[in-house]
Backbone:
């Protein structure tokens, strides 16, 4: 199924008068509303191919229906999202789950939906049917060079798929680590991993970036070989200029100050991209903004300040992606909520009165610094985000329209109630 | 110094046109704005006497100036707050720091400022000069009955001071616990504490409440004898109908779901009151709402729902108090920020569309339940809070007025730059 | 395959001289070595039927070989463990994974291996094929009474299976909870759960116990409806005398003092049993004693002290079970390591000089209290544990013998390399 | 007071027969007992001058008696420790608390007690009487260059004192950070700090090391400007070859894998030294080994492996120091317990069968790797540690002798019951 322009136009027509009033009222209060709206129009968040199905835990999975059964249907799903919000204009593929049979056809299909190919993702955390060697004890860290070789080759193959599709980056997330003291020699695991990454890096086209993702724990429960931003930065620095750290919000120890990490990585010119989600306990992979929206705002506050300080392009110079697991919600609704939360946080960060904040900081006026930030956060920016959607040709209320035209029901009719998408 | 009505009137006159416009715009969007404003007018948060000076850590204290030197000046400080926001109409005293010399004079003074006497607080976590026995190894848990006796007697004395002033509740926070495995017999520590509390409870007037506060750790670093809500509830249940659990937001282990605790304590009829503050790591005692404003909203969401379910009076049936430590900010400005954050969260909770939420819950419509809550949270309710202030005769922008008339400068002139208030 | 007595005898014959020397040297240092050895001989830890296969995470599972394919083979596996260590004399079944076709045959088989039937476990955290209603949004907490009915009926069915086999307890672990703010009305979820539990409790034979297990998070990531010991105790108290709290070591928030929880539950007469495992981050389900062996000792220290204080029988009055997930290790070797760690901690706890500890506590001699505990912990008690095995007819070094006679290789030969046991 | 050799000799004479038996029995079981004993004899842990008095929390301090009143008495206290255990042969001074009036006399005094001068410590986390500018908002990070200048000058002064005394390193611990979002520009705070450190580094003698200590939080509760090992390593790498990271065990977020950090810092050649203590919740500064002795062992396991891999000298190439706070215990007894725990962990690490561990790792034999480590940890090595003391001329049981000759009583008699040492 597709969402057509008439459906959106009709939906917007109904909601536009209220939106117009709210936007005008807010724009009159703010300076720079137009600038913010334009930033919001430009901002695009990639959707990972594996987030379109129902997620699960080790205890089980409660599938919904109408999940995409192949890459074409995944693209179609993201096409629906992008039609609804015009902010989801990219797909991030996972190999081997998404190996295209016909690159050209896939490129054309994505193009029809207005979608670009974001970072390619490799998988060395599972054993695939017919795989020669097991990743049970790691991949790039493995004590056996043959396993490392297999992992390197797989990543190089992923790059090749990406080249065909027009992707420009490779995200390497390694589950490598250990679950018990003594299992690993930490130093050797690091060095094996570094050497493996170097081989992959050497195969990277010049205009590509490599993102080294870190994670504190899970699926290993004692150590992770790319365990925190310090380790990721060590790898990225040793690899070279095109290697960067990737931050996933859920991959930290309790109480970590993620916004400070972001600021320092930007300072070092080594922040590569973001995986958005939210969490209360561990890597819970919940809807972005559903648990700690103020933290999300504080992170965007650092991103905007740091990118502007380095004259970076907000839309192109960092990789923005959602990475969540939809165990209970309809995956597409969940993604719509996540994108909305991201745009709200971004809009709030754009609202921050930077000269006033700088002045408060210069005077150690902590009270005022907080007032400046909270003024932006407490402002109801939803009419700015909606205005951006309106101008971009998206729906004023994507979830409402999603339900009105019964997208899920139609997907189930098309695909069946018992489909299960690849993913976690 | 005092804030007089003319100062407030003049301040409001300047800001009122903008406020009027904002409030009217918002009221037109909402149903029930007037009801919410009235709730906000009625809501009062007690200020603890020990939060008026600069706080410190074990590493030091960086005092500001003009801190109150005695109980009269503490009352004056809260009088300033209450004049500015009309939401700080109560003082919570700490004995022995605030023993009045002349009850009648103190009552009259508080009355002049429109302040009631909230919960009395005892102190068995420090040794006072001349104290016969030390609390180094606990107070009500102590292996020596004479120490327990001393702690009980002190609490009974605190009740007596409270009776003279018109207070109606006693908050017992015990630092009792242990810093090393083996130090305590947990069972005996519990039983000693229970017996001591029972003696204090027996001395409680019939119309008083006893609040049993819990805390996970600090100043003891291995165990705390009233360490979590489960333990506090055990004590409160064994003590009797007038004993309740008191929740301090900073007194939990990492990632605790405080809003669920609140809901269950309300369900059991055993929630007594609240100590507001905010924290990122431990009992950081930061400005309320400065770190996790969404959590604060979720807590108020449970409070409003739970109190309404039990037909409780929002303003009278629970004890509301700020308990924070102002290490870096001007204490009075910090308290103004905290009260503002509390009122915002309360207003947002009042805004929640309860029938819609109940319906979403009944249908397991998780997406919509989130939309309902986040709609309330994302609404900019500041004009409601300001409207409540305007109607109550408070300042539209308390911090701005505080600075305009240079309250701190004048307090320093009156009291000196080197005063140090009692407190933490 | 079976381990026969000759294999054990031959193994022991080789190791016995060294063991004899070590035991005699240690026994000469201690008072009461014989008493401790007898306690160790008597102590039995139940093995859950689902811990015999390779465990996994949501990211995947790396199966080993020779996993048991049915209940008979699970019993055989535990029979091997029990033959090797004589401390694993019970099996804990999980329904529907282990529904017996022929009770009598299963009872006979278990009896041949010297195994009793420990607590029965129900499963309302997964949907079974053909199940009428889904547990996606909870079971006993569910807003729909029909789902609650189904969950209650399932538990009653589990009791019936248990009666046929001679079990005397039911463990109820509920995954019920929520992953997003607003999803649940906490109070109603509690009350629904309580009512459901009451119906199950009503169906419990008089000589049975019900264990109410709590867990902080996972698979739900915002709230859990039996989330901590306080909640479990509330349920157990409202249910009645035969309802108890069950403590699983991995089910707590970071830094929780589990030993204090154990002591207080014993004080209240409401500790029912234990699930042993170890963890660094969350419910990591690692080998018991592999991460925090001192914590394990401190827990046993409270157990021994508290049980003795209530004149409880160490072996019968609490339920002892391992509950772990063997993602990387051979499950049987992992279980042997876990049982060994439990016996070591138990032996150390039995070694604690209780009068000396009590005296140190009575004098607030924190240094000495620590010395007393650490003396026990630092003592190398392995020769006591080995002696107990020797006397019970088990192997002096179970893992060594397991490998010498290539148990796993023979299981693979019998059962195949690609079997996958039911479990997590 | 001093401990004289006769007192030790007499004490040892009594305990020696038992010790001799235990040591011989253990030595017969082990290979390399003599090598381990020699390592233990050589190993020295520095004692910080501020750990000799009673510590406190922000809630208060419960002083003991007989605390050292000046640098001479602090040296005397450490002299007592060193006489008792011959493993505490260095003192670490804190400026301005320990500014010597007469360098030569202090050097002579230390020499008499066999004490070297370990790392010098600066203090920019407190304001000293008469200090021109305040560190309330940081020192080296401060927005005001004059404050940074003051902090740099202070550190350079500290180096000068150290040169006079024969110290060879400077430890910089900065409390710099922020307690509220918005307070700091993280990037500028980092850069200011780096520039300040560079100025201090430039003043460092060629044969000195600079240790950059990190800490996750406290006394700032939102961000710390040297907040984790990644940040410390960034500073140290930018500073130069003589700058190193210093690890304090209590300065991490919950659940951090400290042993992996240690291994990686050693790999990078950037581990400088250690502050030993223990903790359950935050920077609790408890007796080393009192909460997580297995973690301490695992850290030493990495230290020994990593140092040997780099052919480092265990005793000279890293800085070993205790950094704890003695709130409840006699500070000297607490330090004796800490040193004992360190030596035990070190001995256990020396016991690890490295070839067997390497082999298990090479085969991904996780079970055996754990067995190898736990064999070392479960071995009762106390007789090795005691043997080292015996050979070095120390007391076989330092705490027992400390009590037998009533050291504390005599110190109180000499110094009074109400002395308060400088410190935290």
Residues:
């Amino acid at each position: 199924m597709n969402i057509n322009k008439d459906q959106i136009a009709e939906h917007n027509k109904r909601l536009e008068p209220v939106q117009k009033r709210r936007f005008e009222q807010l724009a009159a209060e703010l300076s720079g509303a137009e600038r913010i709206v334009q930033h919001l129009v430009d901002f695009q968040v990639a959707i990972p191919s594996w987030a379109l199905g129902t997620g699960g835990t080790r205890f089980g999975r409660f599938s919904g229906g109408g999940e995409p059964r192949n890459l074409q249907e995944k693209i179609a799903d993201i096409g629906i999202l992008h039609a609804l919000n015009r902010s989801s204009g990219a797909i991030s593929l996972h190999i081997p789950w998404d190996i295209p049979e016909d690159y050209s056809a896939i490129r054309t299909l994505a193009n029809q939906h207005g979608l670009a190919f974001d970072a390619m993702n490799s998988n060395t955390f599972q054993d695939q049917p017919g795989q020669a060697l097991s990743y049970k004890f790691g991949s790039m860290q493995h004590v056996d060079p043959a396993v490392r070789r297999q992992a390197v080759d797989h990543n190089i193959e992923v790059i090749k798929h990406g080249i065909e599709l027009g992707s420009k980056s490779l995200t390497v997330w390694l589950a490598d680590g250990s679950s018990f003291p003594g299992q690993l020699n930490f130093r050797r695991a690091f060095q094996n991993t570094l050497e493996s990454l170097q081989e992959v890096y050497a195969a990277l086209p010049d205009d590509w970036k490599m993102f080294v993702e870190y994670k504190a724990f899970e699926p290993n429960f004692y150590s992770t070989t790319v365990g925190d931003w310090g380790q990721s930065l060590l790898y990225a620095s040793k690899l070279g200029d095109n290697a960067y750290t990737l931050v996933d919000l859920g991959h930290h120890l309790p109480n970590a100050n993620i916004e400070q990490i972001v600021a320092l990585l930007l300072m070092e010119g080594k922040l590569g991209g973001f995986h958005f989600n939210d969490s209360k306990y561990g890597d819970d992979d919940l809807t972005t903004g559903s648990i700690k929206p103020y933290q999300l705002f504080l992170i965007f506050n650092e991103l905007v300040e740091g990118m502007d300080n380095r004259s970076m392009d907000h839309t192109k110079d960092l990789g923005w992606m959602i990475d969540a697991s939809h165990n209970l919600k309809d995956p597409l609704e969940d993604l719509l909520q996540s994108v909305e939360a991201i745009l709200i946080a971004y809009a709030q960060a754009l609202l921050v009165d930077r000269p006033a904040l700088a002045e408060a900081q210069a005077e150690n006026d902590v009270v005022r610094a907080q007032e400046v930030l909270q003024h932006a956060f407490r402002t109801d920016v939803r009419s700015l985000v909606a205005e951006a959607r309106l101008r971009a040709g998206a729906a004023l209320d994507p979830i409402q329209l999603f339900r009105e035209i019964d997208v899920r029901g139609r997907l189930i009719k098309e695909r069946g109630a018992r489909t299960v998408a690849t993913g976690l």
In short: Chain C touches chain B through 58 residues (CB under 8 Å). The two ends of chain C are 25 Å apart (CA to CA). The mean pLDDT of chain C is 97. The first helix of chain C runs from residue 5 to 29.
